[in-house]
Amino acid sequence: MRAARTLGRMLLVVGALLAGTPTASAATAETYADYSMAGTRSAGQFWSEDANMHDAAGWRNQWTWEPQSSGVDSRIAWGDPATWPPDVSERFISSGEWVLLDGWSDNGTYYRQRVDSEMIGNGLDCTNRRPLPSDSDRQHYVPWQVPTSIVCLIAEGTITEESTGTVIHFRHEQLWFPPAPCSNPYHSNQPCLKQYERWLDDNGHYDGVLREKLRRDQFIAKGKGMAFHISQYAPTKWTAHGRYYWRW
């Protein structure tokens, strides 16, 4: 089905009123936008470190942020630079101290993502878990202010393909790490945010049994943007590095 193809492509590319939100004492003055470049017309290419194809785009991929006129809504597209523009575009919304994920466009339709439950916790083991209050049932994707300690997020809910009504159940587990120096073969000594994520869903089965579809680390470089370094562990192993960054 189209939903199956879309999720497969998405998984490969890949804002203290809320209870449980990191407080000012647990966050820096820097924001997610300072690292991701979500608030500017920005772009980048990331290349795999070998000749092995890791997705339909081959051994290199590209992303672009396109802020919308609303001022709180930004879209990021992912795809092959040789066949730009791509079909896939994710929609993120800034709301208070969070960046929310609303869904994405592909195949001439929209995939609306909504959560049934969300938890926030601390550290690698996700201790002290507590619920996140709903914000229009959109997923709390990342804190707006950069944290000074590891933030754990767990979201469960559904994705609806609006053109057909097909419903997919998902679970998204994330760890957001505080800034630290990082390097890749093309750029050295950059301040980076690290995101670990694991994604499970019942796409193609629609039986409520969640199967692991993605597990990876991504590093996001301050002032450069997304995909500075990616190590994917599942379903296949590959590594890629951000090489080119620009504004448009």
**Parts with pLDDT < 50 across at least 5 consecutive residues:** 9-25
Largest sheet: 12 strands, antiparallel, barrel
Average pLDDT score: 89
End-to-end gap:
35 Å
Note the beta-strand portion: over 45%
What class would the helix/strand composition place it in? mainly beta
What does the radius of gyration come to? 17 Å
Q: Give, in order, the helices and strands.
A: HEHEEEEEEEEEEEEEEE
Oligomeric state, counting identical vs distinct chains: single chain
- For the biggest β-sheet, the strand order reads 2-3-4-5-6-7-11-12-13-14-15-16
Give the tally of β-strands. 16
The backbone outline, from C-alpha atoms, is globular
Please estimate the helix content.
under 10%
Number of helices: 2
Tell me the layout of helices and strands.
Layout: H1 2-12, E1 27-31, H2 32-36, E2 42-48, E3 60-67, E4 73-79, E5 89-95, E6 98-106, E7 109-122, E8 127-131, E9 139-143, E10 145-147, E11 151-161, E12 167-182, E13 190-201, E14 211-221, E15 225-234, E16 238-247
Antiparallel strand pairs: 1-10, 2-3, 2-16, 3-4, 4-5, 5-6, 6-7, 6-9, 7-8, 7-11, 11-12, 12-13, 13-14, 14-15, 15-16
What does this structure look like?
With 248 residues, the chain is mostly beta strands. The protein has helices at residues 2-12, 32-36, and strands at residues 27-31, 42-48, 60-67, 73-79, 89-95, 98-106, 109-122, 127-131, 139-143, 145-147, 151-161, 167-182, 190-201, 211-221, 225-234, 238-247. The strands form 2 sheets. A 12-stranded antiparallel β-barrel has the order 2-3-4-5-6-7-11-12-13-14-15-16. β6 (98-106) and β7 form a beta hairpin.
